[in-house]
Every structure is written in structure tokens, then in C-alpha cells.
Design goal:
about 240 residues, mainly alpha, Arc Repressor Mutant, subunit A, 3-stranded antiparallel sheet, 9 helices, 7 strands, about 45% helix, WH-like_DNA-bd_sf, DUF480, WH_DNA-bd_sf
Length: about 240
Amino acid sequence: MPFDPRQQPLTPVQARVLATLLEKARTVPDSYPLTLNALVTGCNQKTSRDPVMQVTESEAQEALEGLRRMALAVEISSQRATRWEHNFPRGVGVPDQSAVLLGLLMLRGPQTAGELRINAERWHRFADISSVEAFLTELQERSDEKGGPLVVLLPRAPGAREPRWAHLLCGPVDVEALQAAASPGGAPASGPLQARVEALEAEVAALQATVRRLCAELGVEPGTESGIGAPMSPPGQE
């Protein structure tokens, strides 16, 4: 039977460990599966994490053992080091696209469908917001035979333009506490905003690299008023 969070919800550390394995499998495949040390470093990142955590090696090891018993993580032993990989889509019984959305919700906290689409860029490129919403709706309407719903659509917070989604892998969500944290008088909800800034910064950096490459191929200097650039001076004639 697929994983049922109503019967055995994940602990916060288990959720962070599992989501980190999901993230690194897609963003740094050359380093995946992860050693325990690399996994702890990923769990404790200051960026793209909400909340920021300080997971110890012993806590991560204990979480991994629990995830292995639930068939959500797999240990791979070798002569050099023991490494870990996730078994999330198969263990939970969801397609890869749904696994991406659940991983992002575990890492970054509640998000709108638009934020999830932006944050998923390095994991999976969704065609549009509608496709994100379709997978979220499928997760929300998951039948009891498959383990029940895995996400919930939160009531729209005061002043917010769109409602946010939250995962249910750690059990029922405390809606009042989340709304209080997102309100002006509560703790600042910096996770989604920082994620949007990071995505935009990455896009700008990619565009700048493309411009520099094209200018080099055309033999022009980037950044001039002509829009593309001026011809590059031969060596020794600057």
C-alpha cells in the first residue's frame, strides 16, 4: 500500500531529509546519491529553505533509517562511502511531477501555484500554471485507497492575491498558525519572496552569459549604447 501520512506522518527532520534527496537528485545529479555529510549540508542550507534548520548527523541518520523502513529512502553501500537516494515517487505512489511539487512544499513551506512553477525550474519545467494546478488538484483529491490527500489548499490570507498550497506528509496542517506567520503582524514570510528573487537572479545570469557568448562570436563589445556592441579592437590597437 502507498505511504499514508494519516497513519505514519513524517517528522519535520524526515521531511527535510527526504526533500533534500529529491532536490539534489535533480539539481546536482553528478553528486547523487548523497553521503551523510553532503545530505546534512543540504538540509541546513540557508537559502531555499523554510524554515531554516540545523540538522545534526545523528538526527539525519535516524531520519534516514525511518525513511528506509517506510520504503522512501534506499541505502547504497560501497567500498568508498555509504550513500543514500530517495524512493519517493514509487514509495508514495505519485508521478515525478507530483513528487517535484511535494518536495518543494517540504523544502520551502506553503506556496502558490505560481511560486511553485518558478521554484520548480531546476527540477522540472512545467508548461504553465494550469499544469501545476492540475497536479496539485490530483494530489488533493487522492483517494483513501491510495493513501488519502497529500496537499491542501489553504484559505487565502488577508491581503494575499492567491491562496497557497501546503503538503500533508507531516500530518494535518495548522492553518491558523500558518496564517499568523504570513500576516503583517506575524513572522515575515520571506521564503516565497526569496525564492522568486533567486529564480530571477539565475535567469538574469543566464541571459548575461548568453549575451557575452553571442558578442564574442560576433566580435563585438557587450554593453555599448548601440544595443549589441561595438566592433572589438584588434590586439594592440586599443
